[in-house]
Specification:
Length: 214
C-alpha cells in the first residue's frame, strides 16, 4: 500500500501554520498516520540549509538560493518523504516545489525551465497528490504579519513587487494544474477557510480511496 503526499502553500499572513495544524488533525482524526515536514527544512541537514536561506548575512545570488532550496528538498525527499509514502503514511509538507516556481521563478525572475530541470533531477516522477494554495491579497497578509510582530526573514523583507509576483505565480500554477492544485481564498475567518479546506480534503480522500478500490 502506498500513502499520499499533500503540500500546502501560501504567501505571508495566509494563515498557513494554523491551517496546516487543522489539516494534520483532520487527517489523523480519520485514522491516517501523518508525517509532517516543511521546506526548506524537515531534516537535520535541511534545517541547517533553511537557516542559511532565511537568515544569511550578505548577498546571496539568486541561483545559489534556488540550488539550496533544491538541496534541502533532495534531503527531505530521500530521507523522509519517499520512505513515508512507501510505508503507506500520509506526508503533509509545509511548502514544496510550487514555492520555488513562485519565489525563485516569479519573485527572483529565474527562468522557469531552469527550475523544471532541477525539479526533474531531484524529484523524478514524485509529485504531490494534492496541493492547497492559501491565497490572500498582499495587503491583508502584510497586516496580519505586522500584527504578530515576528522577526522577519529574507523573504518577508522583500518588496511589494516581489510579493505580487510570487502571488501571481501561485495563481498561474493553480490555473496550470487544476487537478492537483486547489486554490482557497484565505482572506475570510479561520472557520470559513477551514470549512473550505475540509471540503477539499473530504473529496480528495474519497477519490483516493475509490482509486485504491479499483
Ligand atoms: P515558511 O516557513 O513557509 O515561511 P512563512 O511561514 O513565514 O511563509 O518558508 C520560508 C520561506 O522560504 C518563505 O518565505 C518562502 C521561501 N521559500 C522559497 O523561496 N522557495 C522554496 O522553494 C521554498 C520551499 C520556500
Amino acid at each position: 500500500m502506498t500513502g499520499f503526499f499533500i503540500t500546502v502553500e501560501g504567501g505571508d499572513g495566509a494563515g498557513k501554520t494554523t491551517h496546516l495544524t487543522f489539516i494534520y488533525e483532520w487527517l489523523r482524526g480519520r485514522g491516517m498516520n501523518v508525517v509532517r515536514t516543511r521546506e526548506p527544512g524537515g531534516t537535520d541537514v535541511g534545517e541547517s540549509i533553511r537557516e542559511l536561506l532565511l537568515h544569511a548575512v550578505g548577498k546571496m545570488f539568486d541561483d545559489t538560493e534556488l540550488l539550496l532550496m533544491f538541496a534541502a528538498r533532495m534531503q527531505n525527499i530521500e530521507q523522509l518523504i519517499k520512505p513515508a509514502i512507501a510505508k503507506g503514511d500520509c506526508v503533509l509538507c509545509d511548502r514544496f516545489t510550487d514555492a520555488s516556481y513562485a519565489y525563485q521563478g516569479g519573485g527572483r525572475g529565474i527562468n522557469m525551465d531552469r527550475i523544471a530541470e532541477l525539479e526533474q533531477w531531484v524529484q523524478g516522477d514524485l509529485q504531490p497528490d494534492l496541493t492547497i494554495i492559501l491565497d490572500v491579497p498582499i495587503e491583508t497578509g502584510m497586516k496580519r504579519t505586522q500584527k504578530r510582530g515576528e522577526v522577519s526573514d529574507r523573504f518577508e523583507r522583500e518588496s511589494m513587487t516581489f510579493k505580487k509576483a510570487v502571488r501571481q505565480s501561485y495563481l498561474d500554477r493553480a490555473a496550470c494544474f487544476p487537478k492537483r492544485i486547489q486554490l482557497i481564498d484565505a482572506s475570510g475567518s479561520i472557520e470559513s477557510v477551514e470549512s473550505n479546506i475540509e471540503a477539499v480534503l473530504s473529496s480528495f480522500c474519497e477519490c483516493w480511496l475509490s482509486g485504491k478500490a479499483t
